[in-house]
């Protein structure tokens, strides 16, 4: 009695990706992601001189953006090694996507840009919590029912996860730069005096960059009269000083200001001058400027001629 044997065809090794091919795919994929991230940084105008300021003032947020970018790169590398025929269940995919979108929402919530509406942050936080709850519910449902018919590709899921994390990291960097510009940028001020006999002149040069809408630069000159006792080295901060001159400078279409001014004053009348430049915020029609914390001051003592 003859025994029959079934011929089992094994997959050919030639159809499997070779290590050199996988390394080439990883190199190309990482190069594409890093090039896109670098392009986004260049678009927002982040200069080398600003990196130290951002790292000093927002080190934790920079760490968050770096972690998101690293996670995106890990998912991209894992997608190269994942079997293209391997399938996972829809509930796992949905839970993973919901979790990643909740991470994106929390990243936007954490990087708060000054003067942004608070109600938008509330909606973003609520949406992030809702997505996180959906992710947890999907995992619990999958563990409880244990469905046995996977439908979606693991490789495709990893690529989508990498794209979401990469976009979140890029958006986080953009918001960090906007936060840094809104909170740390001060108007630059160079000021001095020229005295010839009984006549004096204040020279001032102001510069500011990347001003937002409804923001101007206010330049003012105050003087402490000789009739008033000088109580400190910075008397105009807590004493009544005369306003010698003031001017409001509007930025150009790029949000930049660079102007020079000269104001006459009487050296025989004032013993101290305060020249200050301040960003005028919340400028609306029919209302005066509201001066925020972004200001620069130069104090000058005047000798009686």
The value of Rg in angstroms is 31 Å
Contiguous helical run count: 6
Number of domains: 2
- Please give the largest β-sheet: 4 strands, antiparallel
Average per-residue pLDDT, rounded, comes to 79
Output the strand order for the largest sheet: 6-5-8-9
| Helix and strand element order | HHHEHHEHEEEEEEE
Helical residues, percent: 40-55%
- Terminal residue distance: 130 Å
Helix/strand class: alpha+beta
Would you identify the regions where 5 or more consecutive residues have pLDDT less than 50?
Answer: 1-12
Shape: elongated
The amount of beta strand, in percent, is 15-25%
Number of strands: 9
Report on the architecture of this protein.
Helix content is 45%, strand content 24%. The protein is α+β, with helices and mostly antiparallel strands. The chain folds into two domains: 18-184, no CATH class; 188-301, Immunoglobulin-like. A four-stranded antiparallel β-sheet has the order 6-5-8-9, with no helix packed on it. A hairpin with an 8-residue loop joins β8 and β9 (290-301). α1 (19-43) runs parallel beside α6.
List keywords for this structure.
alpha+beta; Immunoglobulin-like; four-stranded antiparallel beta sheet; three-stranded antiparallel beta sheet; disordered N terminus
